[in-house]
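Input.
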Amino acid sequence: MQTLTILNTRDIKKIRQLFEETYGAFFTGDYAYLQNKDGRLSLINKDMAKIDLQKLRVDKFGLYVAEIKGNSVRLSKEGAQLLAKEARDKLKNIVELDSREIKAYFHGIDLRKDLGAEAKFVLIEYKGDIVGCSKYKEGIILNYLPKIHRGEVIV
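Output.
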């Protein structure tokens, strides 16, 4: 059982700043934010936040959207898609992949692509749809796609 903490306004403000620095946007919906001891951020409906989590044995609660470590935030596949749905016009650090690259991405292969010298998290886009989030460093887009989402017949 993990300990989930409902974040207060001050904590959410810090996380919002990280999101806006990295991706140019933050979630616009009326959510409550939960974080576990490992830095995994989940969204829930504000009505659900009224539940006393200390009295429940809960392993997972809400939609897992990101992992926060230090001053970096890595979106989950679902978090990237939700952020794109809510704030598409504000997003930055988007990398458009062609059909060959997206097939390699869904096979779990790291991609060679020159996006500059700066290491950063990028959103992966294919034909106008955000399909995930990866880290770019030293000319390589590191593949963070979970094995459960990988496959042969994707594109």
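Residues 43 and 69 are 17 Å apart (CA to CA).
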